[in-house]
Specification:
There is one protein chain. With 503 residues, the protein is mainly alpha-helical. Helix content is 72%, strand content 0%. It has 23 helices and no strands. The longest helix is centred in the first third of the chain and has 83 residues, at 78-160.
Length: 503
Amino acid sequence: MQTMTNYTNFIANYYRICHISYAIIPSSRLSKILASMYQGEKITLMSLSFLKQEGFHELYRLASGEITRETYIAELGTDHLRKNHAAELVIKAAEDALQERATHFITRKNNIEAERNLRRKREREANEADAKARLARQTGYKEQRILNIKMAATAYQLSASKSGFTPPTRQELIGHFHLSHIEDDLTSRIIEILGIIFRGEPLNLNDTDKHHLKGTVPILERLTFGMLSFEAYIIEAKEAESAALARKARDDAEKAARIARESDPEYIAMIQAQALLKKYEVLSIDSSLISKMTKILQHLDTGNRLAKEDLEWLGTNAKKYFTKPVRKAYHRLEADFHANQYRRQKDSWNAINACGHYRQCDLPDLALELIDSIERNSIRQPKVKSAVLTTRGGVMRDLNQREEAIQMGEAAHALMPQDYRPCTLLGAVHMELRCFEQGHAWYEKARTLGAPENGIDSDIRSIYRQLDSSGQENMKRALLAEDPFRYSWLNVTKSKSKHPVKN
């Protein structure tokens, strides 16, 4: 069947103007004029005027009847005919491609339809086969169910005919059907069903019975519906019962072993030791040190202060196990002890010592409360007053009140200019305020007054690690300018977040 587009292309080529775009457009004015000419219809004056205006002179003469088609074709120029021929080839190629696509579409549609029909046929045949198999199974189940009932009835009647026969008890029914491993799950209704099956009587199960059997004893459900013979049922039931009883025996043995193990004093001690080591973050400890370390942790955990030799051992042989939680527990016990001593004896040194320990276990608020309870006006000795001021300055430093810490440190230094402790406090606070030259100067003064060099170096390293990258860079520049050899470690030290050493 020729389409409208093919017909328009044919007429345009008939008049050798298919290279004119609007000549091959269906329903365009030019294509309508060409169709009228081809069909021998009379051309209107308006159409003739259109051909003349558009420059189709030869076509105008042909339409007006001045020349024949043969003369019209002969008068067309070679270039005109060449363009028409080229356009004709393009149109032909497009029409061929369109025809090929249409043919391919029809073929593909036919193939899809054939495949669909074949698939439907196969599905229909499979459904029919399934239905036949299902019917055959159902017939087989029905026959097996009838056979099971007959066999059970015959066996029961034979037993009942013997003298002294008594109906089977609950336990005997459970044993007969090998369900001892799920005895606790068997309801009175299931026991009733077991009795009916045992006697070979017809069994009518409602939906509740079916659901209950399927959830509790699925193998019995299969027997009642004829999916199993008695022989097959006994084989499966025995295997399930044996496996369950063996599993229970293993579980009971493991439970007994666990109870025995957990009741063993050595095991209890080991678990307690492991819990203590975990609580105090003592990990991967040498086995030769566990016993002594456990005793120390038990001592701390029960609120007892460490003996001097235990503290020395933690600071030397077991230094890497002197973890932060262990230190905090030790310092808290020491702080509470000295605080209680102060409250009883009112000796300022006890309060000072207690505050130092409170600070070490990160309890500056308790330290402040205790140090402020001292009546400073009653203190006569400059050394004690200086120590109280230094201690309070350290607490202010912990509470980020550094300006007040500086005031405390300067007042303490004025009272005891030969004591290095106020100087280390002032050095630390000035460093934290990024006044590095002043901080260094105070540390140098402390050094000349006898402050341990390793303590000063530890302070400075700790403060450095607490600063941000900009502060670290400025501190590094300032200290290297003061002593490039002493502070050469600044060239290799990486930032680490650690709690600052308490001054």
